[in-house]
């Protein structure tokens, strides 16, 4: 049982245990939190995202990073349309689609992607499959099918430096010029099949910050403090809880477009966030909405401009795709053996103090001038679409300057 405690001068615990406890003795009852095809799909892509995040954290425990996993779900799903049924099953398992039993899976994903990219949510994301045609003959039916379903046509590469420019221009155009220089170097010869995902997020808070830009200390594990610009606001309405099992405080800050940003702030200055990482799931995050308390706090957040780029192929291999990578079986793309040699990902995220409301317009929340939440040491965060439950971004920030 997990108990969330909130410190308000005294401690009181939230009773939310009934729904989480399996029936004693009997078979474990699965609580169906996700009831529509869209929320189920959102939960599946989120769980894929948390798994990807954990793999990266395990491989690279001392690094800051940032991912927009749903763009990778989208790219790999486009790829799955070219796969044999065995290869499709292998991909679906890693993407968590095997839990869905959704015969309209592609339509559900298409609708979800279009919902989270609605104007006002602050997300630009792009996913596409590139195919090196110097090595293989590509089947037109595949290009047509993906374009018809997802509105983006897989693109043939000619080999050479022109491919880099072509890909970078496309990503830049899809992300409102915010994700620039997607590939920092040309693709290798015989690039094979290159799925890619890119995303940019800049949301608007519901409640604005009156102070912004002042440099402040950000504590760093095992290194001197960094100086980072902060935004601050007193009596800021958030949802807050302290999780003693995870050794962290959790705050949910509302953004426009029914988006929220959730911060996990360990009690200690530490780069070891293993406990938090391991607890993350679509269900755990969905439950936070019920377990956190609406309060007003003295809030300070770093003004962020983060950028991160990586090749996710090794992580996907660790997540259960190594067998598929050895034999991709992309029989609907080409009759030859097609290699996937990289899965490129680049994301950019910004925060700014802007919002539509001033503080003091939320009469429901507990007002207590002593309560504060200062994100001035290593933290994790996620950006979530509350309407569908989809995870849009997830990051671990040991020092904001690492991701400049
Ligand atoms: C990180 O924290 C976990 C849980 O507290 C602990 O088991 C693990 O040994 C720690 N890892 C490192 C590298 O200190």
Automatic annotation (TrEMBL):
Pfam families: Serpin. This is Serpin domain-containing protein. One of its GO terms (biological process) is negative regulation of angiogenesis. One of its GO terms (molecular function) is serine-type endopeptidase inhibitor activity. PROSITE patterns: SERPIN. Residues 353-369 have a biased composition (Polar residues). Residues 349-369 are annotated as: Disordered. One of its GO terms (cellular component) is extracellular space. Keywords: Signal. Residues 1-17 form the signal peptide. InterPro entries: Serpin_CS, Serpin_dom, Serpin_fam, Serpin_sf, Serpin_sf_1, Serpin_sf_2. Belongs to the serpin family. The keyword Nucleotide-binding does not apply. Residues 50-400 form the Serpin domain. It comes from Albula glossodonta. It comes from the Eukaryota. PANTHER family: PIGMENT EPITHELIUM-DERIVED FACTOR, SERINE PROTEASE INHIBITOR, SERPIN.
């Amino acid at each position: 049982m997990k108990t969330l405690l909130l410190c308000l001068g005294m401690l009181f615990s939230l009773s939310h245990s009934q729904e989480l406890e399996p029936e004693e003795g009997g078979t474990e009852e699965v609580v169906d939190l996700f009831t529509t095809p869209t929320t189920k799909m959102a939960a599946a892509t989120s769980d894929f995202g948390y798994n990807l995040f954990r793999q990266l954290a395990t491989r690279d425990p001392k690094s800051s990073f940032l991912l927009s996993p749903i763009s990778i779900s989208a790219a790999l799903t486009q790829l799955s349309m070219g796969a044999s049924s065995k290869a499709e099953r292998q991909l679906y398992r890693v993407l968590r689609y095997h839990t869905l039993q959704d015969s309209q899976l592609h339509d559900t994903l298409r609708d979800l992607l279009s919902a989270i990219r609605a104007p006002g949510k602050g997300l630009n994301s792009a996913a596409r499959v590139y195919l090196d045609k110097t090595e293989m003959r590509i089947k037109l039916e595949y290009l047509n099918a993906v374009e018809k379903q997802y509105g983006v046509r897989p693109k043939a590469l000619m080999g050479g430096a022109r491919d880099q420019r072509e890909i970078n221009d496309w990503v830049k155009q899809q992300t409102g010029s915010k994700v620039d220089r997607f590939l920092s170097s040309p693709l290798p010869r015989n690039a094979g099949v290159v799925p890619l995902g890119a995303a940019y997020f800049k949301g608007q808070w519901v409640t604005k910050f009156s102070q912004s830009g002042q440099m402040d200390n950000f504590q760093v594990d095992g290194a001197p403090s960094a100086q980072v610009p902060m935004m601050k606001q007193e009596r800021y309405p958030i949802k807050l809880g302290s999780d003693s099992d995870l050794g962290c405080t959790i705050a949910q800050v509302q953004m426009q477009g029914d988006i929220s940003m959730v911060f996990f702030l360990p009690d200690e200055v530490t780069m070891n966030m293993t406990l938090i990482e391991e607890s993350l799931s679509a269900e755990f995050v969905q439950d936070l909405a019920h377990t956190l308390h609406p309060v007003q706090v003295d809030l300070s957040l770093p003004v962020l401009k983060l950028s991160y780029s990586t090749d996710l192929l090794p992580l996907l291999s660790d997540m259960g795709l190594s067998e598929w990578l050895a034999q991709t079986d992309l029989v609907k793309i080409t009759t030859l053996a097609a290699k996937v040699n990289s899965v490129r990902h680049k994301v950019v995220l910004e925060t700014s103090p802007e919002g539509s409301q001033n503080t003091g317009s939320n009469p429901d929340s507990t007002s207590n001038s002593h309560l504060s939440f200062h994100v001035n040491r290593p933290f994790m965060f996620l950006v979530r679409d509350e309407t569908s439950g989809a995870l849009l971004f997830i990051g671990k920030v040991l020092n904001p300057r690492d991701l400049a």
